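Hey, I'm writing a tutorial for new members on how sequence and structure tokens pair up, and I'd like a real worked example in the thread rather than a made-up one. If someone can provide the structure for the chain below, I'll link this post from the tutorial.
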Amino acid sequence: MKQSTQIFLIFWTVALVLGCRGPKSKEVLVAAVSEDFPAVGALPKSVVSPKGNPSSIEKEALGKLLFYDPILSGNKDISCATCHHPDMGYADFLDISIGTNAKGLGSKRKFNAQNDIPFVKRNAQTILNSAFNGIQNHEPYAPENAPMFWDDRAKSLEKQALEPIKAFEEMRGRSFTENEILLVVIDRLKNIPEYQTLFKNAFNDAEPITIENLGKAIAAFERTLINNNSRFDQYMRGDGEAILISEKDGFEQFKKVGCVNCHNGPMFSDYKMHVLGVPENSKLPFVDFGIADISAKDSFAFRTPSLRNLRFTAPYMHNGSFMTLRRVLEFYEDISKGKVRNPNVHPSQFDPFVHDLELSVKEMGLIISFLNTLNDPDFDKTIPENVPSGLPVGGFVN
């Protein structure tokens, strides 16, 4: 009797240990949740172009050259790539960017000795996957209405592409007015034979070098800058082994504590404006009121950023206030408890979702491990050897 009891206990113990191992990773039901959370999802495998700007190889090639050519800037010293460089995940690793009248790349970029140009007031978002801006699960996607910038001031990549050229502290500088600069740039392009040919091949219009076509070409190139096969994308497409058990736990925590309320959809952004009271950047001599002036109830509101490719896009928030993801999560923990990090913003102005956050230090490591599954290093890192203007590729980045 004693021996049979021992055998039973041994068998029961082995069965219990084996049972505690749980299902193998491939047996996990992908995206199965027990609560009603806002939906997230994999990115599409292909990009949609607006009807008014269908993609073509010629247009994309032209757009890439324009993206790297400082001929588009007032002083011919900076290009789009200066603040959106492939070596830096098409961002610039700075809290707030340094535009014209400067040299260097990323953290090495400095203003020239004689300078009266201010910092760009906001952090340069990566343009990786900006082709998908505004996309939500199971909803029609309209690229011509895609929201751009931290304050949502432009719709579509076509319109976004022209704004930095016009901006004084970004690419325009003091040589020309905002009303002049695009006409000046078009005249420059018309005087370069190679651009004459490239625009003709890309657009086949009687007058192909126009402001509108300039925006279309750059936008066509930017739509090629996608990386839509992260480990999370693979997981959501059915590969249960694409992410680790700890990362799956982090995914559950991400939903449970409330991050998913604003960071949802395939791009992990609701593309809405929220007031969080992020600390001001001390480099700026003024307060950044966000999408509206101080008299409006929605001042200090900024658009929810995507959480994809965070590995390449530090520092974080609209003005680069936080160098690490842990600092970002600590900030959310603070404001969820009513702690003010920006004296210009009263807790009563905080977005209602802030009060729904239930974030503590113990969850942060798991959430960060999950966020790492949204990184995808597979994107176009090639740089043209030269540009048609003959100017330094990318601007004065050395």
